[in-house]
Q: What sequence folds into this?
DNA sequence: AAATCAATTCGATACTAATCGAATTGATTT
DNA sequence: AAATCAATTCGATTAGTATCGAATTGATTT
């Protein structure tokens, strides 16, 4: 029954509560256990409709039913709401939702637009976001923890574009590289940066 | 902007998160602020679609946008998720959702089916839920904190049905009244009972 | 001033989900 | 055994919404 990943479970939970009548059902069951007919009368709906809503809530593990003669009496599952609320608040939940997402897609799209087949730049884009995507790609040509003299920096940058001076300046300005006394080195990605360059 | 009652706000919140792509947007924004185009590339959607999703999330007060040149950079509203999670957990939230619901509707429906125009019972229903609804109606004819001798109890019950013995027995059995040494008195509603009899 | 760019709005389309009535199922009462 | 009852399932209809492409808007760059 719980063959769902945590994010699928969370989505199921939100979908279950994203309906006015289902929310009311939860509110009513919080006060007392009720049968399908009772809920139908209170909500002004047909029993078949209420049965459907209760099925959705069951699949989201929010309610359960017990048989009493020919009644099906539904109960709020104790701790179900609390559990999901805590899941929402948990630090690891949000990142895990985005886990399956291709966060490099934008950079790839920009590079696809701006790169020639040989890997050189058609142009150095003027738009900030595009420029940043290009710079993230270029800086991957430098190794971490290595000190580069300016001559070597220019040789590497020249593989991408003849205007090495602009590229140097932008790499520094966007804090992807640092310079001191004519020596350059790569800076580690800040929190707001993307995953590692996928090297397309 | 917040001309919504608490329950409408809660529903808006759940609706906003009841979509896989919007959940992913929240997950991505939890890691870093992003523009519409970046989100569109990551999710494999058109900018217009993402714009629509961001509008929904904005109306639910989950994200906000800041203009940066011609980019619209979206941010997770700090504390928004936490706030809603706490609202979910709050003791008073659940009952307030069901506040507008007519909890007497089932009893009224049963009474409408089983009562004659003069207020007498066509039959004493066999089904437990229906019987309970009828008993809740009948017990309202007795005052709280008054001690009734059996003779007077029978007179009152006879207004509803000739089989006063059965009615007496069921009222006791369902703990709506109690008896001791031939004296009867009404019991206060337990947690699982309905609101006061609407006296139709 | 013209061209470019990202975002939004709008209209159309496809998909999903809510609701109902009819038929069916399981259980209980007569 | 037959009749009654509540719940569920099923099929059809309707309402809502996700998605897209085209057009528009505001801002920036050339």
A:
């Amino acid at each position: 029954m719980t063959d769902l990943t945590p994010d699928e479970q969370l989505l199921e939970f939100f979908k279950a509560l994203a309906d006015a009548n289902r929310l009311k059902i939860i509110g009513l069951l919080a006060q007392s256990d009720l049968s399908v007919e009772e809920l139908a009368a209170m909500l002004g709906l047909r029993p078949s409709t209420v049965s459907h809503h209760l099925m959705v809530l069951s699949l989201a593990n929010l309610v359960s039913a017990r048989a009493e003669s020919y009644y099906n009496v539904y109960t709020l599952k104790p701790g179900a709401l609390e559990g999901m609320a805590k899941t929402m608040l948990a630090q690891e939940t949000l990142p895990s939702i985005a886990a399956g997402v291709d966060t490099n897609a934008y950079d790839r799209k920009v590079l696809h637009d701006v790169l020639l087949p040989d890997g050189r730049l058609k142009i150095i884009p003027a738009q900030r976001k595009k420029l940043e995507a290009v710079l993230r790609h270029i800086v991957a040509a430098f190794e971490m923890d290595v000190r580069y003299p300016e001559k070597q920096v220019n040789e590497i940058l020249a593989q991408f574009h003849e205007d090495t001076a602009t590229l140097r300046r932008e790499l520094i300005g966007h804090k992807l590289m640092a310079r001191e006394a004519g020596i350059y080195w790569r800076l580690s990605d800040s929190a707001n940066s993307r995953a590692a360059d996928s090297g397309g």
